[in-house]
Design brief:
Blueprint (H helix, E strand, L loop, with lengths): L9 H16 L18 E7 L18 H8 L1 E4 L2 E2 L5 H10 L3 H4 L15 H6 L4 E6 L15 E2 L8 H18 L6 E6 L6 H7 L31 H4 L8 H31 L6 E7 L18 H4 L3 E4 L8 E3 L4 E2 L3 H9 L13 H4 L10 E5 L3 E5 L3 E6 L6 E4 L17 H17 L7 H14 L1
Parallel strand pairs: 1-6, 1-7, 2-9, 3-10, 4-5, 4-6
Antiparallel strand pairs: 2-8, 7-8, 11-12, 12-13, 13-14
Length: 466
Amino acid sequence: MKKPSTGISRRQFLKAGAVGGAALITRSSPAQDAKPTHADTRPNILLVITDQQGLDTLSGLGCAGIKTPNMDRVARGGISFVQSHSTNPLCSPARSSIFTGRPTLETGVVVNDIPIRESVPNLGQWLGQNGYDPVYIGKWHIPHSFTFDIKGFNVIPAGLGGQGTLGDATISRAAEGYLLNRKHKKPFFLVASFLQPHDICQYVSMHKKAPDNLPYPSIANELPPLPPNFKFDKREPETIRKRRKLTWSEEQWRYYIWSYYRMVEEVDAEVGRVLDALQLAGEVDNTIVIFTADHGEGRGRHQMVVKNYLYEEALKVPLIVSCPTRMNKGIRDETHLVSGVDIVPTVCDYVGIKPPEGMRGKSLRPLLEGKATPWHEFVAAEVTLTGRMIRTPRYKYIMYKGDPVEQIFDMKEDPWETKNLAPDPAHADTLAAHRKLLAEWEGSLDVAPVSEKIQQRIDRWSKKKT
């Protein structure tokens, strides 16, 4: 992990996290379902973020071979947005949108390890200025992954660098400690940001030359099937084709998917600890819970792994919003196109404050409460500096600047993106319409200026990825 901007070392951060977490959980246990005593009746906000979790990885939303009882608990109590998109399927950029309500070209975080544009406030700063107690626990990564120094937030140190399987338990325990020890003077904005299932990156790195035999032959009959788009249309941008370097057997691909599911289950248990603490603190009825992820994971779809491209598996993420006293529950919204930029205006709407200037998203509140409202004509996404995506209700358009191959998918007839319609003259008008939407969208943006230091970071990233 890079040295945080506060100047503390990794050893100091981890030591502080261990001591601080233990102190937070040492408490006098409140009565079951205690009632909050603070005078401010505005809702608390609990934002739970996982890392690299694709949309369709919840058992309650139909994913076979996985058990996510705690994420399902959030879904039962609220609205699950099935057309939920990351603004940029890469860690730092996606997170910058979640906390600012702006696309990554505007936040300036177009690759990893870049700070948010100085003039753009994050949600912790904004709510803190409006009477909330903003608390951050876990991975930040804008720019440093784990740090004391997050503008606008009181940071409780927890986590363990790049190891979610070990560090996520410290994050949930720190969140538990905060919820059970606070004095109820202000409504809270608590972020619990977990690392799992990001450990799949290490799995892929360690298995580039996979063994011929499974490490656990006894689970061979339990392995998930290959996805329907394991075989797909090869008319792709070269940007994507050159990324496929694995030579796994079909069984090895299935074992990789199985392993990823276990990592999702690990973080589900930690989410459960936070939800239990929220209930024990007596704050369930007055807390809006938002569960999401920064981006998805390949999972063998299009024979891809990890992220940083614009197919559904990397781009689609969970977005579930729940509060039993303020919105509908147990509903799957399969119609409305949403993305990470919609989180900030939603939170501001519910806490009764005007959002920061320049929001590109919309408040989800009307959708959460079953009210008719004009909605997005499309959502957009960016990736790897040059990749762009426009998603309309029926079609999805992908292009990479400098690459002659474009892609159009009919998401109603071909939700697995197996047939590229862009070369088909019958879809020339659809292609032209989506090109126009992209040009208009890009032309409307207040693109962040690029300093010499940031440009050097972008250049290093670009070189590393080519």
